[in-house]
C-alpha cells in the first residue's frame, strides 16, 4: 500500500475554559498544517476561549452545549466533512509537529484506521498513582479490545472518516470516557490501529486540568469494564457481515 500524507484534514480541538492555551494550540497546528480546517469546540466555557481561538486563526468555533469531552468531540466530527480528523486537547500538552508522522502512518494503514500519539513525559515527573493507573487501563483495554493497546487515554489521535463517523453516531459517553470508547471500539470493530511516539508537556502556567483523578478515573474504569458498542461491526476486510 502506498504511503502518503492524507489530504482533506480537519483538526478538532474540544475545549472547556482554555483561554490560556487555545491560541497557542491553534497557531501551532496552523503552522504545521496550513491547509487543514481547524475547528474548536467550545464546551460551555465561561472565559475567553472562543475569542482567543478566533484571534489565533481557528476556522470556526462550534458551540457544544452538552457538557463533556465525548459529547463535544462527537459534535465537532459531525460539524465538518473531512477524510481524516485529528483530535487533540486544547491544553498545549501535545506537540503539533508530531502530526506529520501520525498522518503518514494513517496513510499507510488506509481506511478504517486510527493512529494514537503515545505520550512520553517531557519536563515533568508522572505521579506514581497516575503511572499505575495508566498502566492498569492499558492492560484492561487490551483485554477488552482483544488487541495490544498503548496509551489508551491519549487525547492525540488521527481518525479516518469511517472511524470518526461510527464514533460520532454511536458513541455513548459524554465525558472523559471518549478515549476508552474509541480504544475498545477499535478492537471490537476491527479497525486498523497504529502508534506514534510523541512528547507530552506540562500544562503552561495559569491553566488547570479539568480531569479529576478519582471522580473521572472511576467513570473511565467503569466504562472500560462495562462498555459494549451498540453497533454493527466490520470484519477483517472492512465489510459488514450482514451485507
Summarize the helix and strand pattern as letters. Answer: EHEHEHEHEHEHHEH
> How helical, in percent, are the residues?
25-40%
Low-confidence stretches: 1-6
Q: How many helical elements? A: 8
- In the CATH scheme, what's the topology name? Spore Coat Polysaccharide Biosynthesis Protein SpsA, Chain A
Number of strands: 7
Number of domains: 1
Tell me, what is the CATH class? Alpha Beta
> From the coordinates shown, what is the CATH architecture?
Alpha-Beta Complex
Tell me about the largest β-sheet: 7 strands, mixed
- How big a fraction of the residues is strand? 15-25%
CA-atom Rg in angstroms: 17 Å
N→C terminal distance: 26 Å
Q: What's the CATH superfamily, by name?
A: Spore Coat Polysaccharide Biosynthesis Protein SpsA, Chain A
Helix-strand category:
alpha/beta
Task: Briefly summarize what is shown.
By secondary structure, the chain is an alpha/beta fold. The chain has a single domain (9-226), classed as Spore Coat Polysaccharide Biosynthesis Protein SpsA, Chain A. The protein has eight helices and seven strands.
Amino acid at each position: 500500500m502506498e504511503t502518503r500524507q492524507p489530504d482533506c484534514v480537519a483538526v478538532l480541538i474540544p475545549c472547556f475554559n482554555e483561554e490560556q492555551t487555545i491560541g497557542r494550540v491553534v497557531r501551532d497546528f496552523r503552522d504545521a498544517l496550513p491547509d487543514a480546517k481547524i475547528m474548536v469546540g467550545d464546551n460551555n466555557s465561561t472565559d475567553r476561549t472562543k475569542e482567543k481561538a478566533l484571534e489565533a486563526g481557528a476556522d470556526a468555533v462550534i458551540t457544544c452545549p452538552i457538557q463533556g469531552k465525548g459529547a463535544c468531540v462527537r459534535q465537532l466530527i459531525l460539524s465538518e466533512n473531512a477524510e481524516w480528523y485529528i483530535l487533540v486537547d486544547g491544553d498545549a500538552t501535545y506537540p503539533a509537529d508530531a502530526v506529520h508522522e501520525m498522518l503518514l502512518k494513517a496513510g499507510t494503514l488506509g481506511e478504517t484506521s486510527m493512529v494514537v500519539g503515545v505520550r512520553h513525559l517531557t519536563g515533568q515527573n508522572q505521579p506514581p498513582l497516575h503511572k499505575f493507573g495508566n498502566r492498569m487501563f492499558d492492560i484492561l483495554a487490551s483485554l477488552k479490545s482483544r488487541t495490544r493497546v498503548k496509551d489508551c487515554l491519549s487525547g492525540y489521535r488521527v481518525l479516518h472518516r469511517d472511524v470518526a463517523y461510527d464514533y460520532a453516531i454511536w458513541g455513548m459517553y459524554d465525558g472523559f470516557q471518549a478515549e476508552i470508547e474509541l480504544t475498545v471500539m477499535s478492537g471490537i470493530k476491527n479497525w486498523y490501529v497504529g502508534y506514534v511516539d510523541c512528547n507530552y508537556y506540562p500544562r503552561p502556567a495559569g491553566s488547570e486540568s479539568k480531569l479529576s483523578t478519582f471522580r473521572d478515573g472511576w467513570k473511565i474504569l467503569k466504562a472500560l469494564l462495562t462498555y459494549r458498542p451498540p453497533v454493527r461491526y466490520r470484519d477483517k476486510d472492512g465489510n459488514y457481515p450482514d451485507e
